[in-house]
Design brief:
With 397 residues, this protein is of the alpha/beta class. It folds into two domains: 10-210 and 330-393, Rossmann fold (3-Layer(aba) Sandwich); 242-315, no CATH class. It is built from 16 helices and eleven strands. A hairpin with a 3-residue loop joins strand 10 and strand 11. GO terms for molecular function: transferase activity.
Length: 397
């Protein structure tokens, strides 16, 4: 087995749903020994979205793809033995990562102030929906809610229609990456000083950072930018940046060449009612809907192939709007190796998309499929020098 970046690092993962498991899984792919502590009640994601065809034996595709490269210990943290086993695991760990509601770990006696007494060098990473010390700390937090509250949804969609949330759980994934960066930096600091530390990221703050460019415009230029009614895909972009329907689908147009490139595009599409005076830096920005509407009308009767062959020679960037299934079938994506086959007695045979990071000397590994509930409880307890605990302290052995 090749050497990995995090050989010898153990992670105790008190994680559920998406953001916590994604961060923990990435650490596992970097070579850490990640041990997920799951309650007998189970991670909601384990069965929240089942495969309708039974390919995954009734478990959720979401769970199998975000809980790879982790061992699974099932402990009832509300029992004395279960809590003692959790503390023994934490004492042997380099990193603890958790994304429970604020205050839950503290109520269990597993908050950072208690844990650093038994493991001063631990990196204690917390993920929450909102600032755990702020006034919003007890609000319900989930990707869709954060998209709404942060303003992401308000920036998406046509101006004459409702806001549209992004069709992926982008805030869960982006928040997980903030914590991952923090953990790696904290491990480097510990290597140099011996000091552990607590770190945290919350989904709301992460969503604001995700929109740092857009926020800078709102904070400094225009407080309430208006979405385009003609389909310009960004509140701050000029025409023709956006999605355009064609006879057999849709394409996107993106130009960073300013007026000269827009003039080439208009000429190539033979849009006679747009003159030279209609295409200025001011007008492609502030009359963008009018310009985009005329471009859209010219493209609508064309096939995708006809539209792209007309657009590409102008230097305007263009691409077809594909379904996710079409993207996953693209040979250029398949050849990267990012889609991998996984087989396990628990989940059967399935495919997953793995981490995109490539490292020459310490490659990422895909060595463990998502584990069954409590699959490694006996194994891990034995490593900790613990005898099997009482039945009510674990899910099943």
């Amino acid at each position: 087995m090749p050497k990995t970046s995090l050989d010898g690092i153990r992670v105790a993962a008190f994680t559920h749903f998406a953001a916590g498991p994604i961060a923990a899984q990435y650490l596992g792919s970097l070579g850490a020994d990640v041990i997920k502590v799951e309650s007998p009640a189970q991670d909601v994601n384990r069965y929240a979205l089942r495969d309708p065809n039974g390919h995954l034996q009734g478990i959720s595709p979401y769970f199998v793809v975000t809980n790879r490269n982790q061992r699974n210990v099932c402990l009832n943290l509300k029992t004395e033995d279960g809590l003692a086993a959790a503390k023994a695991l934490i004492a042997s760990s380099d990193v603890l990562i958790e994304n429970y509601r604020p205050g839950v770990m503290e109520k269990l006696g597993l908050g950072y102030e208690e844990i650093k007494k038994i493991n001063p060098g631990i990196i204690y990473a917390s993920i929450s929906a909102y600032d755990p010390e702020g006034s919003a700390r007890n609000r319900p937090g989930q990707d869709l809610l954060i998209q709404a509250l942060s303003g992401i949804a308000s920036l998406t969609g046509r101006g004459d229609g409702p806001p549209i949330p992004v069709g992926a759980y982008i805030i869960d994934g982006f928040t997980a990456m903030q914590v991952l960066v923090g953990i790696l930096a904290a491990l480097r600091h510990r290597d140099a000083t011996g000091e552990g530390q607590a770190l945290r990221a919350d989904m709301m703050s992460s969503s604001m950072y995700l929109m740092a460019q857009e926020a800078s415009y709102v904070l400094n230029v225009e407080a309430n930018p208006v979405r385009s009614s003609a389909g310009i895909a960004h509140v701050n972009q000029s025409a023709p940046y956006g999605v355009y329907q064609v006879k057999d689908g849709a394409i996107v147009l993106s130009t960073f060449g300013g007026v000269p490139m827009v003039k080439k595009l208009v000429a190539a599409l033979q849009i006679d009612d747009l003159s030279e005076e209609d295409i200025t830096e001011q007008k492609i920005r502030f009359s963008r809907d009018e310009i985009a509407t005329k471009i859209a009308a010219r493209l609508a009767p064309m096939t995708m192939a006809e539209a792209m062959s007309a657009v590409e020679p102008t230097g305007t960037w263009t691409a077809p709007v594909r379904t996710l299934a079409e993207a996953l079938a693209d040979p250029a994506i398949v050849e990267t190796g990012i889609i991998q086959d996984v087989s396990s007695p628990y989940g059967g045979d399935y495919k997953v998309v793995v981490e995109p990071l490539r490292m020459e000397k310490t490659p990422l590994l895909s060595r463990r499929p998502a584990a069954d509930l409590g699959e490694h409880t006996e194994e891990v307890l034995a490593e900790l020098g613990l005898s099997p605990v009482k039945a009510d302290a674990v899910g099943h052995l």
